[in-house]
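Appendix B, Record 12. Input sequence as logged:
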Amino acid sequence: MKSWLKSKRISVVEFGKNTGFYVISDRELAKPIGFFGLSADNELYNLFIEPIYRRKGYATDVIQLLRDNKIRIKTVTSTKNVSMQKLLEKMGFKKWLKYEDKEL
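Logged structural output:
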C-alpha cells in the first residue's frame, strides 16, 4: 500500500480504495498505531489510537497532517470523551454543537 500522507513521525494509508478508512503508522516503529475515518464531506470520525500510544501526540499529529494538506475537517465528539474535546479545543476547533450520549 502506498502512503497517502506522511509527516516526520507518522504516515497515513487508506485501507482499500475509496473506503474513507485510514490506518495510522509510526514511521520509526514501522507499525500501525491507530486508524480514523473521513466521510465524503471530510467529517473526521472514529479517530482511534492504540492505548499504549495515547497521550504521546499522535492524534495531534494526525489532525495537523490533515490540515497541512489542505483537508478541511469538521468533527463532533461525545461529551464523555473529555480528552478528545481538550485536543480539539487546543487545535482550534470551535465548540458549536454538543452531542449528549443517551442511555439505552
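The beta strands are 5-6, 10-14, 21-26, 31-38, 44-49.
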